[in-house]
Write a structure and sequence with these properties.
The chain has about 250 residues and is α/β, with parallel strands linked by helices. The model has no long low-confidence stretch (mean pLDDT about 90). The longest helix has 16 residues. It has a ten-stranded mixed beta sheet, sandwiched between helices. A two-stranded antiparallel sheet has the order 1-2. The protein has one domain: Rossmann fold (3-Layer(aba) Sandwich). It starts with 7 loop residues before the first strand and ends in a 7-residue tail after the last strand. Pfam families: ATPase. Keywords: ATP-binding, Nucleotide-binding.
Length: about 250
């Protein structure tokens, strides 16, 4: 009997794929979690941008925390020209912020105010199919709860979101907040990690009288992986992970 071989999706994050046997399992849903300022948005956008730049895989970014124009400007600091790939039909950014703050959106893809969960999922599905996306980012889960007024039913919302992502066959990165992962709480609601097939924690540790960034793969189905903490940096070219420099 032939052994099942998991197809891998290269993330475009130097050093990270070495921890996962070559990358994310194709079609999986990965939660990237951590406190504010640890690099979650950069990690997620790098996954989509490098997918388009290096591997010819179109991607969708659902931005629910900052306007698309602000995201584009911020990512230019890494040399990532999102608009270039938008114009080529390789990246689509869904603006989920403008309507919330009461401003008209000038974006090609924008969520309308008052969308319920089903409307949100249908819209994302339509944009994914529009550009034949292979990668998807939703930044962030807490903003979905607030945006869709479904916080009390967050587990059900996430289950439905995860199900439709798996049905679409895209490899997805969802971001969430972890206020104090050192005390064991690695997501804002305490349920996000249970409906994701993978969990990557980004955090800070004090070492030699300064704060260092580290990354931990908490869970990744279909993958043998280390449970050690590995240092990473946010460089002028984006995130770089150092798999030979485990913290412990």
């Amino acid at each position: 009997m032939d052994r099942y071989v998991v197809e891998r999706v290269k993330t475009g994050i130097p050093g990270f794929d070495d921890l996962l046997g070559g990358g994310f399992p194709r079609g999986t849903t990965v939660l990237v979690t951590g406190p504010t300022g640890t690099g979650k948005t950069t990690f997620a956008v790098q996954f989509v941008y490098k997918g388009a730049e290096l591997y010819g895989e179109p991607g969708v970014i659902v931005t629910l925390e900052e306007r698309a124009q602000d995201l584009r400007r911020e990512m230019l600091s890494f040399g990532w020209d999102l608009r270039k790939y938008e114009e080529e039909g390789k990246i689509a950014i869904i603006d989920g912020v403008s309507s919330v703050v009461g401003l008209p959106s000038e974006e090609k893809f924008a969520l309308e105010d008052g969308l319920n969960v089903e409307g949100f999922l249908r819209y994302v599905y339509r944009v994914v199919k529009n550009i034949n996306a292979k990668r998807l980012v939703v930044d962030s889960i807490p903003s979905i709860a607030i945006r869709l007024r479904e916080e009390k039913d967050i587990r059900e919302v996430l289950l439905r979101l995860n199900t439709i992502l798996l049905e679409m066959g895209v490899t997805s990165v969802l971001t969430t907040e972890a206020e104090d992962p050192k005390r064991g709480r690695i997501s804002k609601y305490g349920v996000e990690e249970y409906v994701s097939r993978g969990v990557v924690l980004l955090d800070l540790v004090e070492k030699d009288v300064e704060l260092k960034r580290y990354l931990l793969v908490r869970k990744m189905r279909e993958t043998r992986h280390s449970m050690k903490k590995y240092p990473f940096e946010i460089t002028e070219d984006g995130i770089v992970v150092y798999p030979s420099g485990e913290i412990y």
